[in-house]
Amino acid sequence: MKTIALLYGGRSGEHEVSCCSAASVYDALDRTKYNVIAVAVDKDGKWYPQKNAEFKTAEGFGRVLDIKRDGLWFVNHFPENDKLVIRNIKTGEEIIADAVFPVMHGTYCEDGTLQGLLDLAGVPYVGSGVLGSSVGMDKDFAKKILDESGIPVVPWITVVPSDLETSYDFLVEELEMELGYPCFVKPANAGSSVGITKVKKESELKPALLAAFEYDRKVIIEKAVNCREIECAVMGNSVPKASVLGEINSTHEFYSYEAKYIDSKGAETKIPADIDEKISEEIRECAELAYEALNLEGLSRVDFFLDKESGEFYLNEVNTLPGFTSISMYPKLWEKTGVNYSSLLDMLIDFAVERHRIKSALKVDFS
Questions:
Q1: Do 220 and 186 contact (CB within 8 A), yes or no?
Q2: CB 226 within 8 A of CB 307
Q3: CATH of the domain at 68
Q4: Under a CB-based contact definition with an 8 Å cutoff, are residues 128 and 297 in contact?
Q5: Dist. CA 172–CA 205, nearest whole Å
Q6: pLDDT confidence of residue 265
Q7: What is the enclosing helix (H) or strand (E) of 229?
Q8: 230-to-86, 173, 233 alpha-carbon distances in Å
Q9: Is the residue at 36 inside a domain?
């Protein structure tokens, strides 16, 4: 029986979302196949194995995995027989896992940082590796790669903090010429719609940029599209497979953090989405192409905009560790495709073990 370390929490603005996702995954992992150890990562980055995982109710999120902060634990940063070892340096107690299932979102969680640590430790883990995770997280670089690969993306402008001081007037002029209003201002490296503002006029631009810069040192401004929001779940390693499509209908002005997680009536979902069969197939194929172009592995949710006026679609973003809450689209899309929640988790763990086996067979020295 494999021991799975379920990582949750993390040093990001999506910490609470992760605790909610983790509660669902913790319940659904098959205890006849796995010994599951919940391992919390606190907001300060400290790791806390939960000997007896407990749940609590969090306002706006419902049932979440709690975090008990007990002990001082260190993680091995070198291979130990393909195991993750977490040691309490005060007592000598060890927690040993055969594989890691990160249910963590945002910076220091799905941006390649955590994946680099797990690669150093030489342990199998669910999800993309360092490159796919970091590129998938960075909306600016992801768009550049997708655009170069011939995949349609929404037009955007990239902004760094110095632009506000040295070339703000030029930025305003460029925005008005290339994108126009309304537009969306987003941190380049964040998820769950954290730090996003819809800007309708020039006077709202600088406050929106300053708000986004609180979450990242790079921000993108994106053209607003009068669209339907379509989502596709993808899984696999070298051969990705796409699910049926789903549609998000937000009751808010846009699909914000509040609409996703706080307001129980913030959005309605329709699976499968009511889309022409030919367009649906094209979007699914595009999702698989994007998965390969960005070097993604394991799983990803690929989000699209379907223009209500032109009928054209654009790839909005990829989520390399999508939400796994009870209302999250990724597991719901696979359920409608014929893969239930527990079977989906089994498959994702199998992909992690397969990738680790292949990678471990590669030579690391030359003699």
A1: yes
A2: yes
A3: 3.40.50.20
A4: yes
A5: 8
A6: 63
A7: strand 227-236
A8: 40, 31, 10
A9: yes
